């Protein structure tokens, strides 16, 4: 079964610095990949998705992710962190032959003023 | 355009009781999926409903059951509650079973 692994349960960056949140997937075929963000005491909000079209995917709030098949990665980046980006970020995959999302364990992003 | 809504927002139950959580999908969506998110963890898939039938199920016991109504809204029922059922329960809707899922705010269940 396909899965995703998020490296780093906690990431801290300074305001204005680059944000890089890592996600690797395990799959023999290109999967559907997603990044969701969860603010405290809220549900999940879709940031962006990859569905085998362009490998560089742009999302909301200035985030983007690049699908790299050779590295089986789908890392999330943002050039300049803002205080409002502080949240929990989840990478997820729709598994082949299934319809459900399989989530990584999440990365908590802290932005230091 | 209303997004996914869930009720109630919070719920406190005692062990052994039963609970029903409700979800209204985003306008135009016909598929509802339910997830359980324990504290500090990622969401885990419970089941998915499409055309009023359970189409796929995760690794959850039969104590977890659901229903989808003709208007596509859905209920999640949990019987014989255990302390370990305490979690945030998330509902997601989509237009089709493998399409992008949009989440509601969740229902936080505390079992004492």
Structure description:
- The complex is a heterodimer of chains A (113) and B (112).
- Chain A has 113 residues and is mostly beta strands.
- Chain A has strands at 3-7, 10-14, 19-26, 32-38, 44-50, 56-58, 64-68, 73-78, 87-94, 101-103, 107-112.
- Helix content of chain A is 0%, strand content 56%.
- In chain A, strands 2, 4, 5, 9, 10 and 11 form a 6-stranded mixed sheet that branches.
- In chain A, strand 6 (56-58) and strand 7 (64-68) form a beta hairpin.
- Chain A is globular and about 45 Å long.
- In chain A, 35% of the residues are buried.
- The mean pLDDT of chain A is 91.
- Chain B has 112 residues and is mainly β.
- In chain B, strands 2, 4, 5, 6, 9, 10 and 11 form a 7-stranded mixed sheet that branches. Chain B has a 4-stranded antiparallel sheet with strand order 1-3-8-7, with no helix packed on it.
- The relative contact order of chain B is 0.34.
- The mean pLDDT of chain B is 95.
- The chains are: A mainly beta (113), B mainly beta (112).
- Chains A and B meet through strand 4, strand 5, strand 9 and strand 10 of A and strand 4, strand 5 and strand 10 of B.
Unreliable stretches of chain A: none
Query: What's the helix-strand series of chain A?
Result: EEEEEEEEEEE
Helix content of chain B: under 10%
Find the biggest chain interface: A-B, 21 and 25 residues
Largest beta sheet of chain A, briefly?
6 strands, mixed
Query: What is the general shape of chain B?
Result: globular
- Helix content, binned percent of chain A: under 10%
Cα distance spanning the termini of chain A: 41 Å
**Main β-sheet of chain B: number of strands, strand sense, barrel status?**
7 strands, mixed
Q: What's the Cα radius of gyration of chain A?
A: 13 Å
- Structural class of the helices, strands and pairings of chain A? mainly beta
* Strand count of chain B: 11
Sum up the structure in keywords:
heterodimer, A: mainly beta, 6-stranded mixed β-sheet, 5-stranded antiparallel β-sheet, globular, B: 112 residues, mainly beta, 11 strands
């Amino acid at each position: 079964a396909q899965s995703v692994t998020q490296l780093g349960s906690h990431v801290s960056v300074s305001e204005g610095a680059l944000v890089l949140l890592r996600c690797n997937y395990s799959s023999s075929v290109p999967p559907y990949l997603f990044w969701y963000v969860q603010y405290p005491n809220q549900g999940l909000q879709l940031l962006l998705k990859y569905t085998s079209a362009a490998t560089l995917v742009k999302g909301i709030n200035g985030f983007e992710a690049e699908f790299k098949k050779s590295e089986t990665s789908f890392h999330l980046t943002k050039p300049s962190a803002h205080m409002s980006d502080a949240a929990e970020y989840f990478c997820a995959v729709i598994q082949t032959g299934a319809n459900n999302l399989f989530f990584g364990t999440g990365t908590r992003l802290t932005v230091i003023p | 355009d209303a997004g996914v809504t869930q009720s109630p927002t919070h719920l406190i139950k005692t062990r052994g009781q039963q609970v029903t959580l409700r979800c209204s999908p985003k306008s135009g969506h016909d598929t509802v999926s339910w997830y359980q998110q324990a504290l500090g963890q990622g969401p885990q898939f419970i089941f998915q409903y499409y055309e009023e039938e359970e189409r796929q199920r995760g690794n959850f016991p039969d104590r977890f059951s659901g229903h989808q109504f003709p208007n596509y809204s859905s209920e999640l029922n949990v019987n014989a509650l255990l302390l370990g059922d305490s979690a945030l329960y998330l509902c997601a809707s989509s237009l089709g079973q493998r399409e992008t899922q949009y989440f509601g705010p969740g229902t936080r269940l505390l079992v004492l």
